[in-house]
Amino acid sequence: MASLETNKIIDNLLEVLPQSRYIHTLGVAYTATSLAMVFGESIDKARLAGLLHDCAKAYSLDDMLEIAKDNNVNVTDLEYKSANLLHAKIGAVLAKIEYGVEDKSVLDAIMYHTTGKPAMTTLEKIIYIADYIEPSRNKQKRLELIRNTAFKDLDQTMLLILEDTMDYLKATNTDIDPLTEETYLFYKENT
Ligand code: DGI
Ligand code: FE
Ligand code: FE
Asked: pLDDT tens digit string along 89-108?
């Protein structure tokens, strides 16, 4: 099955997401397509992954755990406790089974949009970065620098975001996913 058309996906997201999350989602999709134009990535893949990256966000943690169980998805100890982490993995599952996305590169961009992972593909970096810089975001520090760097150097931008994310997670006493830390160390050592 081919994935749903863009308009159908947008209609569905409008139904299932609260307004602010829907606006964020459109912001990520447009920012991701702009980055795709700069860095020679597929505009269609960037739009699809951007639209669907938070498609699981409105589910409760219990509902996400149910979806994981029904689809034989492995859930880590930390994900069991954190909707913030689990929505990325469940988003990839829903993109496949509800929205008909078969392209693994798109599913992986959704799967890793919260933690990142070492040695990300251009599409994965684009979604991770677009999620952070899209126009309706306004709370993070260094946003101006990060937005400016994003359209010049994806790896440098990954490092800036990961530095601030690690600082934020430590400052708020939030459990750090091993994959977030590995991603941070990878971009620190390789950028
Ligand atoms: O879903 P969004 O709000 O658009 O953004 P997101 O998917 O990047 O992240 C959701 C939250 O997850 C955000 O507040 C940061 C947090 N997060 C990122 N890395 C980690 C994390 N939370 C935990 N517990 N551990 C992490 O390593
Ligand atoms: Fe997210
Ligand atoms: Fe998001």
From this structure: 999 999 999 999 999 999 99
